[in-house]
Amino acid sequence: MKPNSNNDRYQRHPLPDDFPISTLGTYREKIVAPSGAFDHQGNWTQTFGIHSTGTGNSRVGTLVLKRRVSPEGRVSINVHHDKVLSGSTMVRKGGPQRSRRVLEAVMHLDAGDTPLSTPRRWSFHARVLDAHGTAIPEASLRRRAIVEDGKLRVATGEDPPRDRPLTGAYTVNWALFDAVGRLAAESSDPICFTLIDHFDQIKPRQELVFRRAIDTQFTGQTVRLFGFDQTGCGVMPWTYWVDRQGHAVVVISGLETYMLESVA
Amino acid sequence: MPTCETSRRGFLRAGLAGVGAAVAANASTAVAAPAVLKDRPPNLLLVICDQLGLDAIGAHGYPDAQTPNLDRMIRRGTTFIESHSTNPVCSPARSSLMTGRMPVETGVVSNGRPIHRSRPNLGQWFSERGYEAVYCGKWHLPGGTATPNDGFRLLPSRGGFAQIDDTVLSHTCDAYIRNCSRERPFLLVASFLQPHDICYYGNHPGLRMPAGMPYERIADRLPQLPPNHKIRPKAPVALDRIICDWYDEQQWRYYLYLYARMVEMLDADVGRLLDAVEESGQADNTITLFTSDHGDGRARHSHVAKWYPYDEAAKVPMIACSPGHIDSGRRDTEHLVSGLDVMPTLCDFAGIRPPEGVRGNSLRPLLQGKSTTWREFVSSEHHVVGRMVRSDQYKYVRYAGDPVEQLFDMKADPWETKNLYEDGRYADVLADHRRMWFDFQRRLDVVEPTGRPARPAAPKRRTKAEGAKT
Description:
The complex is a heterodimer of chains A (264) and B (470). Chain A is built from three helices and 15 strands. With 264 residues, chain A is mostly beta strands. The N and C termini of chain A lie far apart (57 Å). In chain A, 46% of the residues are buried. Chain B has one domain (42-465): Alkaline Phosphatase, subunit A (3-Layer(aba) Sandwich). Chain B has helices at residues 8-27, 34-38, 68-76, 90-99, 103-106, 122-127, 162-179, 199-202, 237-240, 249-279, 311-314, 342-350, 364-367, 427-443, 461-465, and strands at residues 43-49, 77-80, 83-84, 132-137, 153-154, 186-191, 286-292, 318-321, 330-332, 337-338, 378-382, 386-390, 394-399, 406-409. Chain B has an eight-stranded mixed sheet with strand order 5-4-6-1-7-8-2-9, sandwiched between helices. Chain B has a four-stranded antiparallel sheet with strand order 11-12-13-14, covered by helices on one side. In chain B, helix 3 (68-76) crosses helix 10 and helix 7 (162-179) packs parallel to helix 10 (249-279). At the A-B interface, helix 1, strand 3, helix 2, strand 4 and strand 5 of A face helix 1, strand 5, helix 7, helix 10 and helix 15 of B.
């Protein structure tokens, strides 16, 4: 085989301490470390920019997580997940060519705080909006789900529900943004669970484990981050970089990156 | 350590119970009464994915990923084991899926070209014949997303990276299947991007494929390398140039690990569509066809990506299911099928005459266990000047103007390790396959390549390494 310059490139690129932040290149300058007091166990709203970090980096949407604790101690998390779409004939009827897909969900953590912020029931509404914010009826979907008696029951619209076995620890993907803020750093014990991805796709054999702490700089400020890796069936490896207060400052899975933009 | 695996058998049992419930519910509603549905043409759901090799599915023997939903399709339908792409590159292969013709007959001889205006596509053909033809997802003929001129009604999608887009696509198609008016049958094309995202790992060394193992926990769980990983049979120059020689063993195995995860992501999104068909009571009148434009190198012959006639790139899944219409549990290892066959098959089930000059055959007789005469070989195009013909036992590759040919005995050497073209014992076989090659070439109704002038060469090594558009 002929020598290849890429072999040399590898030698110059051993695994960096902050992998996979290192894969963002100069795009990492968009990461902003939050400041100010923060009660991770209380009420909060966190807004993340969703970024496509493949060959060309771009902001493609927004994730808003709103955590609320009732006076009785019950926890719910509202999810607003919003991605920009390209045009379509269905959308163009309503006007300009940019549309959005919005998924809004409410997760109820009836058992209160659990290590994985495990919800017992949730509902969601996924729809496509034209540029005027009008939903396209054929592209709208409502689902509700409940976990009980070792089963996940998902019902979509008026269609008959579907039951699937679900035992052991589990959670849904965006609940982990809350959960990682409470995980113990420096522990090498993995947490094993089943992931309910995007609220309906069962992906077993997930492991979430602490990797390392790093000191890194964002916009000139040195921040200590704790990295947790999630690997398992049906997911590109996720890495959650969490600060001392429990914010998931930057979360990266393959070509998709969530950057914390604001906390309230 | 706690384990939380979902019982596969229990999962499947629950899925079957769900089908029963859906059918029972359907019988009680006027909209979905089976007797009425059987009096009209069936719905057609064509699921296309990007870069899925035929044997990258659990039920096809893939040990590295769990694919319960594709396995479900295979169990309930028919899968073709000798299924081939017409050209293992995105746009050319897709032009065949859309028209039933070879890429040189559609004008799409390489990526980013539109289908020649003289060749009607599925959307144009079906929308003029009583169907609601709907498209969602990757198009690439030439743009990432289709336009209204392409004949389909378009559902919104993004047209970027699979990881960002596919779950949006599956939600949208899921919603469409449940919400569609049912006044007319639909032809829905759901065109997923996974596992194409692997191109952004294999082609971009030093970033997402660093020298060190990123995730220690999976280091001992990485897939094994294939037996032909280091083998490079003698090949025409354009093929010989395609090689990925910048990974060490662990990096190759990490590449395979990531590919397997992408396959699982695809499987989960396909599952959404299968569930939607079943739960909405349309399973008994919907033909679902699943295929891919091409496969992926997966470390075989030191390959990533595609662009070559070896099986890792050229063989693709072709799976069909529909209770009552298609035999279940059939594994067809006999018939050589092709992306050419998609359009005539859908036309046949719809009771629509296919466009004049379509080169493919309807798979319907094979899907219904009927005897029929079938083709002697399939063909696949490469780099404008290359062509492969695959007969029952042999694969023959010839690039116009290159003195090196390839001949593989696919029964004795399924990993394509020994090029027999210089072995005198195979002179008759070689002559026979040369005849097929030239006969097929002569019969083609070639059109001028659309878009820019065609460039008869393989991607350069350097181009591939730095990220070819795929």
